[in-house]
Structure prediction request, 183 residues.
Amino acid sequence: RMRSQGLLTAILFALTCSLAKGSDLIGNENKRDIEEIARVLRETVKADLETLFNQHNKLVEQTIDVMEKSLAYVDKFAEDIKTHLEKRIDDMDVNTMNNFELLEANTNDMLTKMNETLTTNLDNINQQSKEERNEIIWWAHHRAHLHEDILKTRITACAYDYGHFGKGVVNYNSKDGGYIADS
Prediction:
């Protein structure tokens, strides 16, 4: 409302000045109007300007306060994220190391069991092959003694082959050959 009064006064002053160009009476009246306008400017417009300036300063202070609070919030949020991520990374490191230790222990156990199984299997194979080897040696020894016993005996067989003339294998069962029954 005050601004509109000041603006209206300024317009009236401009109109008054344009109409009153030549008379002293109008000049005195213009002088009074100018003084009135100056008074209105001092009393109302100055107060309005001071109010606007104060409101502007309050707005600036509020803006600064909001910005400071926003920056503090962002800083706290960034610190919270940093702390959270560091904790998660540390937890993951601990978990990974625990898993590696468990993997190492499990692998060690499995290799030990595999070594025991392989050793047992090799012992079983060795024992079984030893038994089979001993059986083969016994059989070969027995067979050799049997052949020695056969060779120790004297067997005489007389045979003839009139169809063989010194070439090829002699076959005593041919039509021209045979065994002598009385020998």
